[in-house]
Amino acid sequence: MTRRCPLCGQRRIFRRWFNMLERCPRCNLRFERVEGHSAGALGINTAVSLIALFVVGVVGFIATYPELPLLPLVASNIAVAVLFPIFFYPFSKTLWTAIDLRMRPPEVDEVRPGYGEWIAG
Known about the structure:
By secondary structure, the chain is mainly α.
């Protein structure tokens, strides 16, 4: 969740907000480990964005009840629906890679020696 390598904690794994390096400079972990890997990150981003949208909608409804000003409520929901997925994108990428590492620990030849042994246990 901190935009770091989920294996070794290396900080600089993004060139820009949407552009992740192919491999970690420190442990050499390939971030897209299998074809279709980014679908998991997309799923996490979608789920968390929907939760954020729901929370904003419910809080807005409760905070303004009984008047319910429609335009501010709709505008705030549209803003969350558009901006939150953009903001959360790099976090979803690293979070999904961390989940993938727990489900499928790295093989010996996937990372530099000394990295990844602790995950299998």
